[in-house]
Amino acid sequence: MILVISEANDITTNEVIEWLNHFNADYVRSNFTSYTKLNYIQLSNDSCHVALLDIEDIAIKKIWNRRGGLRLLPTSLRGKKNLYPYLKKEENSLLKSLEDILNKKVDYVGSYHMEVENYKLDYLLLAKEVGLNIPETLITTSKKEVFQFFEKHKSIITKDIRYPIKVNLTDITIFSSGTFVVNYDMIKSMEEDFAPTLVQKKIEKKYEIRIFFFKERLFPMAILSQNDQKTAVDYRNYNREKPNRNIPVLLPKKIEKKVKDFINLSTLSTGSLDLIVSQSNDYIFLEVNPQGQLDWVSKNCNYYIEKEIAEYLIA
């Protein structure tokens, strides 16, 4: 039995499911937007057993957590506004423990736990540890420090430390633009002290690389973002009318090894990793997303990743 955890309209999951159907695989899909019945978690001095959706852990061969965590709270509880926030915290704590338990019992790919606790600083330090280059980075609450950093590097950028900003102004919701350049006037207008802010040296790049990885397999794609002023700083400032060209790319063997070392040390089993290639041909680590989009990588590069995932799950 294969357990797939995702959301109902996730394109990647739907395509993997089509392959599982093609291979006549025995699977159950649970979408995090729907209620999943937790039959039990039973602990004793001698054993630990789990049953979800009337399926005992001994019957589960592999779990693929594509997106999100299970929803263990019945729908009827959502209307209890005073109690629901507390119950969600309890559920969240239980989900992390449940994932840890199942991880030791079955082949568990993906992680709700790692997605929720995806911290840029931790991964930058880990990348540095395996020998990958990282951008010079400053996190500070001091205007003076930002000025000194700016004077040193002349060109700097900023991005969120963990969560992209979402601000609701009456009926208009504004999302973070991801990464943007910080100039002198911006710094001058800042207060002397402010919330912790991350800035990095701006690196002039030739192109960006998105690497989707699944277990030991790497699927790298070059994003030619420098050909468009709108996406030159960050390809996520998408140009919908004239999208960037995305092509398969081969990583140098030494970079491939460092990337795999990073993945092994991070204990991530799947995700998307972002690099840039500088004008001097240095490969520089930016960040990693423990779940990550793969549909566009698969289709732009003809990797057929969805088929490979299905084949892994049934093996």
Can you walk through the features of this model?
- It contains 9 helices and 18 strands.
- It is α+β, with helices and mostly antiparallel strands.
- The chain folds into 3 domains: 2-112; 136-201, no CATH class; 205-289, D-amino Acid Aminotransferase, Chain A, domain 1 (2-Layer Sandwich), CATH 3.30.470.
- A hairpin with a 2-residue loop joins strand 10 and strand 11.
- Helix 1 (11-22) crosses helix 9 (305-314).
- The longest helix is centred in the N-terminal third of the chain and has 22 residues, at 84-105.
- Residues 124-314 form the ATP-grasp domain.
- This is ATP-grasp domain-containing protein.
- Keywords: ATP-binding, Nucleotide-binding.
List keywords for this structure.
ATP-grasp domain-containing protein; 3 domains; alpha+beta; ATP-binding; globular; ATP-grasp
Q: Helix- and strand-based class?
A: alpha+beta
What is the end-to-end distance? 11 Å
How many DSSP helices?
9
Beta content: 25-35%
Uncertain regions: pLDDT < 50 for 5+ in a row? none
| Strand tally | 18
- Largest sheet, spatial ordering of strands: 16-15-14-17-18
The oligomerization state is single chain
